[in-house]
Amino acid sequence: MEPKEDETIVSNNQFLQNFRTNSYPPLLTEEELIQLLRISEITDSSPHNVILNLIRVRDLPRIHISKKLLFPLNAVFEWINKETIWN
After folding, report:
1. Which one of 16, 53, 58, 72 has the lowest number of neighbouring Cβ atoms within 10 Å?
2. What pLDDT shows up at residue 14?
C-alpha cells in the first residue's frame, strides 16, 4: 500500500530535516548547490548555466551577501517541494 501524499510529505520533511542538519551548511555556495541538485550527473550543460536558468525561469531562491550569490538551504528544500509534481 502506497503512502498518502500527506504521509509522503511528512516522511520527506523528516528526511530533509536530518539531511539539512548533517550534510550542508545553512547557506550554500553555487558549487554546493550543484552537488546537492546533482546537476553534473543529469545534464551535459554547464552547471553554472543551469543554476542561472533555474534562477531566471523557476525562481530558485537566493541571496547576495558581499556580492556573493548564496542559496539558503531551507528555502532550496521548500523550492524543491514546491516544484515537485505529485502525480
Report:
1. 58
2. 60
Count of other CB atoms within 10 angstroms of residue 1: 3
Sign of CA dihedral 47, 49, 52, 54: negative
Domain count, the chain: 1
Alpha-carbon distance 58 to 11, whole Å? 25
**Nearest residue to 77 via CA among 12, 11, 30:** 12
Look up the pTM and report it. 0.73
- pLDDT tens per residue, range 51-65: 999 999 999 999 999
Q: Which domain holds residue 10?
A: 5-83
pLDDT score for 24? 86
d(CA 45, CA 54): 13
How far CA 76 is from CA of 3, 20, 26, in Å, comes to 24, 11, 10
